[in-house]
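Researcher: For the annotation table, I need structure tokens for Bacterioferritin. Please keep the output clean. Sequence:
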Amino acid sequence: MAEFLTDIETIRKRARQEIEKGPITDAYGADLERVLQVLNEALATEIVCTLRYKRHYYTASGLYSEPVAAEFLEHAAEEQEHADKLAQRIVQLGGEPDFDPDTLTKRSHAQYDASADLIDMIKEDLVAERIAIASYTEIAKWLGDGDPTTRRVFEDLLAQEEEHADDMRGLLERLPHDTKS
């Protein structure tokens, strides 16, 4: 059986020191302030994605819109769950989640979209998912072993963003590209 790198008495003593830091211990290996900033950028991204999917849900129209709108609504709910997970992690790390509507789109990696055409909506949602995938992959790699809990949060989000991208790609492949009728 492998031995601990630090003896248990030292770990116990350290656990009592700086108790106000909650889960942040000497073993935490990431730049906490930068992690909080990145988490808040991801939070903004998820909120903007929720809003974009909601808009697309309510404004989707045309012959093929019903199943596509249902997909938009499902993704909106999942993006909101992502935002909630990120906000929860920010608080766990002693930070404050930034929900300021005045700066959401500036901090978001993805963009808001007001397309009126169903195919354009799907394409813009696919682009946003691809941005989230690229960003979250980089973030997970950057976090490495410095903050494994936050890394796992991003890995979980990443898996679902990949599913969303696959869903959007599938919709594009199945729909005729003249959806205005």
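Researcher: And a one-line annotation?
Model: The CA atoms of residues 49 and 59 lie 15 Å apart.
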